[in-house]
């Protein structure tokens, strides 16, 4: 089938032929049968597996994405965007014309970064002392220093970074990728989200919703301890043997029911979903069973260090999810509100030391581990938050920084990315993106491109038109590409 | 379109046009289409410029400079660019320059006045956008069709059957056999109430399963309150009902549940649909407005709302888009929301139509105090007036109390009576706007102490004064009690702000002013809809005008759209399968005459939804079996010809409510604030406030019907979400129906089902006694409305030898038959 014609709006239902409709939905996880409006001709049951994996628009190296979401918005001038001019101007008032601060919070003076920036690797990419471990992989990292977004509020900022739109209800990047590329493993979700023990991001599940797409494309919350998925565990008081026996009874009765109703593919698909669920119990539990990992691995991820244990565990589980073919894993660093996240309003320095300290070693371990297993060649790493922070302090006398949507840094690394470089630039004080500005939609277009998808062709017909992750915007940042 | 235009031009007009000089349609439009529209059309609009519509073409692009100055080609950038007169910009940028002849035509056309004819006699005759809708079926008037003749007249119980059978006979097909009485009975119960029949009810029907008895059953079921709970929920999907705003605070919409109760009550009372629509759209503007009709207008405020918008001006238009999109989809079946930034890409809907609809709603305001949303008192006009008079009397008294307290507070802080640290006292004395964050911190720390100090130190004389004032206020309140509070928008005056067409949909780029109007494609030259105020003068009356037009004979859509929805919820699919989209991109009706028959019948019968249920459910079409037919299925797998009743999974509410009914746990309490179903702690972990967003589980309360479960936008109850609950951010026409492993996990391992299975087992044991065989029969009849087959009986008996009754109940709740009724 021609990739263009499959998105053409001239078919039914909802602008798609039946076959296309099937193709679109067949890539959900766990053998998703969107039985809605589907044929009764057995087409589905014959093709469910074949349809679950889809071809990208063009060949691409990256098959998986790990989005390391630094929830709360890290400060660019303290992490990946060194600003000597800011040091010179330290303590002086900001004289430019940008509106500083959010929600009429107090505005202080320009504030230098207390963190030292050094050149790393052969490329000499500058990274602050907050990330000694990650810095070892400087030559793999492509920092975009000219990010900008449309909002300085957390809720809409997280929504925009995750779903491409400041308004609630749009499908997340992970949903788009699951929809566009399908799933490599139908006994695991294709889009997995792991939140911080202190809480989820502001906006909660609207950050990993499938919006108007079928629910099977939405991000699935995965817990790093206990039963990883909701309702995965056999109910209390029921033994595994009883569980199997009851499932067998159910299958038997359902098959008898189906036998009297031959050809009803919806009924057949539902019978199959129970078997998949049973297999999922084993697969998903295996992923979080990290006991067999070596002590060396444990040390590398920092599992025995209280500071890094939680994020380390999630990074290790991420590797194991990728090994099983999971398409998109999103890890949140920081959760809840203000200082429990990267939202350093009152003391950005202490805040960033904590959150960088929790994540730096695990992220470096993940990179090293992916390189060891070879997954690095097909995995794209994304690091960053919903926006940046001001070069000024928030109020006087406290080293806090306020929200900044004019300019901030994100980085990409891994499959298809040209590492060891910084793309774009903010102004002298790191406030506003001025060189090669990269809007969030450009960033999304670039991620889709790295995954082999053309953001203008990856569309979903809903509510009267072809919806896109990038809306009517988006340009691939070519410099990022290897 | 192009062929159309050319056809005219090449015909008798051609000569006249030649004589008159350059003709737009003949000479200019083809150039624009071939060389300009791909970048400057409705799709790309490069540089914010489009050349496929007159107004936009003349206006120019992002630069703000008019592109065409009629009569002055030299001053028209369009000509300068194509002629290569501007060193910086040459158009087209690719594919070669225009031919010299073409350039000359453009020049001559502009210099001759840039004549650009937009329309002929018929609406949309010449506008390429409106042209798309010419002749489109849903824009034609509803005409009552003749009842077709059929061969098998014995099958025709009412006119519906004639329409359906005629199509089948044309193919030489026969309709499916009638459904077995037991199956049909269960279908009817689930359809109308969302729960299966009790044992006594089953016995009564099976004793007399005659068609007439089933007609009486329909009426009896329609009279149950459970009917409104089932069908009201369908409407809540259409109007994007949810109980929080979404975004950071995801605040609960105060008293929003009254709207849900209103909808349920409206269905139960069989409120005529035109009235139902009128109350939701203009419940404050109708002459007989009252508390109930004001609750109905809560419709406007059900959507998501960011209380901390990035751009307040843009946010205002986002809210209006929410209203325009929902209203056009819910009542017109049109995707007008897509025309906010440009003319619709597929439909005959102009951006001007969109903003004309915005103008209808532009008077509405969201009552709030900063981020805090406010509700409003609800009552008749007289009641509200009385309340306003009372409040006007109370206000000075309240002010006096406030002054007394405030004076004393200042005196207390300045004097030596306070034990607070001086810095804290100074902070309290600083006007709020001038307080530093340190001040605010001090205030937070010492507020409680200060309140206590003030209470203790208040002089007796002041105390008495305050008590006296408070007593006077109380007397006023006794004489004129408070009114119930409702969550709705309000229109504060008769003159809404002017509405401008926004270029590219941007609030910062207002174009020409647009008056309120109905979409052009639906406007009739002979019946112009006037939006001049017909109302009380308290508001603009525009919404009232719109609502009246919607239910008027000159609007062909609304009646078709609603009867199609009712049909859909009975049969799984509408006669138009895209229930929110009757436009050219929507599906065509499978049975257009039947749809028009139902629409005209519905209007003649007073827009009564219950009568429509009666008509549909008394047809043999409704009463067909779901059994397949391999040959028909091969030719018509989607059952578009209605040769049988289609299988469909129950919506999640009906699944859960059926379990509650079968387990005996259903709490039939109707109405009132929502309840909180059980949500596992693990599911709350994704929230930024995991400890605060959900109430502790109260099983009795949580055993109410699912329509009363709290709908929180940032955390939809997991069992609902996984079982294809609707999108709550937009109008939802129909639930998706997916089958995935996580549903199996939830239904097999989840708390709700296992809890109900345990209750079900206890119920069986207590009602059927200890005999396993009796238990099996009892369970089967309660859950599936039938006795087990001998094979099932044997299988169960052997299962129960080594397994608990509870396990059998869990299996029953997971049966395909339980969620896919025959």
In short:
The complex is a heterodimer of chains A (482) and B (822). Chain A is of the alpha/beta class and 482 residues long.
Strand content of chain A: 5-15%
* Alpha plus pi helix count of chain B: 36
What composes the largest sheet of chain A?
9 strands, mixed
Shape of chain A: globular
| Overall strand count of chain A | 18
**Structure annotation, total helices of chain A:** 11
Q: Helices, strands, pairings?
A:
The complex is a heterodimer of chains A (482) and B (822).
Chain A: H1 18-25, E1 33-34, H2 43-52, E2 64-70, H3 84-88, E3 117-120, E4 125-128, E5 141-148, H4 154-163, H5 173-181, E6 191-194, E7 220-221, H6 240-259, H7 265-288, H8 295-301, H9 306-323, E8 328-333, H10 348-373, E9 379-384, E10 388-389, E11 403-404, E12 408-414, E13 421-423, E14 425-426, E15 433-435, E16 438-439, H11 440-450, E17 459-462, E18 465-468
Parallel strand pairs in A: 2-8, 2-9, 5-13, 5-16, 6-7, 6-8
Antiparallel strand pairs in A: 3-4, 5-12, 9-12, 10-11, 14-15, 17-18
Chain B: H1 2-20, H2 24-35, H3 37-40, H4 54-59, H5 77-83, H6 100-111, H7 128-131, H8 159-170, H9 181-193, H10 199-207, H11 211-222, H12 225-238, H13 257-268, H14 273-282, H15 291-296, H16 312-332, H17 351-361, E1 368-369, E2 372-373, E3 376-377, H18 381-414, H19 422-429, H20 437-457, H21 460-479, E4 485-486, E5 500-502, E6 510-513, H22 542-550, H23 558-571, H24 592-604, H25 609-617, H26 630-635, H27 652-663, H28 681-684, H29 699-702, H30 718-722, E7 738-739, H31 741-749, H32 751-768, H33 772-784, H34 790-802, H35 805-814, H36 816-819
Antiparallel strand pairs in B: 1-2, 3-4, 5-6
Helix pairs in contact in B: 2-6, 9-11, 11-25, 12-13, 14-22, 16-17, 18-21, 19-20, 23-24, 23-25, 27-32, 31-32, 32-33, 32-35, 33-34
